[in-house]
Amino acid sequence: MAGNQKSRQASEQVRELGHAAVDWISRYIERAPSLPVLSPLDPRDVLASLPQHPPSDAEPFAAILRDLDEKILPGITHWQSPNYFAYFPANSSPPSVAGDLLSSGLGVQGMLWATSPACTELEIRMLDWLVEMLELPQHFLSSNSGGGVIQDSASSANLCAVLAGRERATNFDSNENGCDQGLTAYTSNQAHSSMEKAIKVAGIGRKNLRLIAVDENFRMKPEALAAAIREDKRAGGVPCFVGATVGTTSAMAIDPLEEIGAICGEHNIWLHVDAAMAGTAALCPELRYIHAGLDLADSYCFDCHKWMFTNFDCTCFYVRKRNELTEALTITPEYLRNAASSSGSVVDFRDWHVPLGRRFRALKLWCVIRSYGVDGLRAMVRHHVKLTQMFIEWLKSDARFEIVAPGSLNLVCFRLKGPDSATEALMQKLNASGRLFLSHTKLSGKFTLRLCVGQTYTEEEHVREAFELIQQHASELAMGAR
Ligand code: PLP
């Protein structure tokens, strides 16, 4: 049959192209440590190298791979380099790459249970496994009132939490009639910008978001939160959402969830906990203190695509009561109706986030968890935390540097003593060297370098080289300034 022949041809072609692509990836991972970590290209360099118009005739895959090497690779910042220490990582691992490839091969779109039962049910099982692996509250289990779902990003998860909180606070009326009920929301002034974005997108309005002050360790001050809520209520406002952070982006600060949770309970406000980066640390029992008080949260998210060796995108988002989330997000046009959904006996993940369509992301997570085992993942996290502590000790031994925030988990915030300009110049010089990449923030108004150890292939030698390079460049800058 013609159809079978097409499938046979496609099968051959996938084998041929797939082998070439996998060989390319394998060589790339090997080369990554020696490539300049931060792409040195100028704006529009890549664009200028690309033809203005698409080809009319088919081109061989070898030509595409050649251009990948010559035109695209120079414009890549190497997130998979062991010398990558910037922002938070988007780490990866061989089982994850393979899992993602398998997901592409299946090409499933899992919007409904019926559109691939395994896509939904593997995801349910993986998210339940993670509750056990991180010792998360039991109500996040699918067998209890809640459950988890994979989203594309923590930003999306934060948005969904805001939407659910908004709906619950208005008795599910704002979806119908808009939100002019005087809704107010709260997060610390150290929360990730996606919280602010979520408040804007959810129609609550940025002017109704209170950025709560933090203490000297950059943790939300519960008494300031309580005061802000009281003030808004006195003025007739309707507090609907508190976003706490476990592992803030700038300083890896951990908000006091127990106190914040008690305040939210008293006022019946949705508490969401964003642990995008730090959550993975809870694989290790000795680091589970980060989640003290999490049982008071209505929702929670963390990113396997940051520190759990799983390719972007893989945010795990949990809710205490799944009905509150699905009621906020569900909508059923005729063309999506089916017997399984109508029976109420299946989960349709389309109701758990904003997009309808969804990739089979659980597959890469399954590959990662099974390939390393929980003990293997734990060991990798512990290794990163140990390397970070080593780096902190080295920094302390050099009087030119100051550590700006308490060293927490796998992030170090530090600067050269003195004016901001010196630290800024140091960062530029380091990143221009191509030998490492780190990024910055401002803490207490001071320009601060952030070094995050979370890349899968980072070893002690890379952290040591980073420290020596930082010292060397600091010396050169000081000599130049004389
Ligand atoms: N929340 C926190 C605390 C983060 O640090 C980040 C990114 O670094 C995000 C949310 C956004 O993550 P994503 O890229 O998954 O949207």
What does the secondary structure layout of this molecule look like, with pairings?
Blueprint: H1 2-31, H2 45-49, H3 61-72, H4 94-106, H5 117-134, E1 147-151, H6 154-169, H7 174-177, E2 183-188, H8 193-201, E3 209-212, H9 222-234, E4 238-245, H10 257-267, E5 270-274, E6 299-303, H11 304-307, E7 315-319, H12 322-329, H13 339-343, H14 362-396, E8 401-403, E9 411-416, H15 420-433, E10 439-443, E11 446-452, H16 460-481
Parallel strand pairs: 2-3, 2-4, 4-5, 5-6
Antiparallel strand pairs: 1-7, 6-7, 8-9, 9-11, 10-11
Residues 88, 153-155, 192, 194, 245, 249, 274, 276-277, 303, 315 line the site of pyridoxal-5'-phosphate.
List keywords for this structure.
482 residues, alpha/beta, Aspartate Aminotransferase, domain 1, 7-stranded mixed β-sheet, 12% strand, globular, binds pyridoxal-5'-phosphate
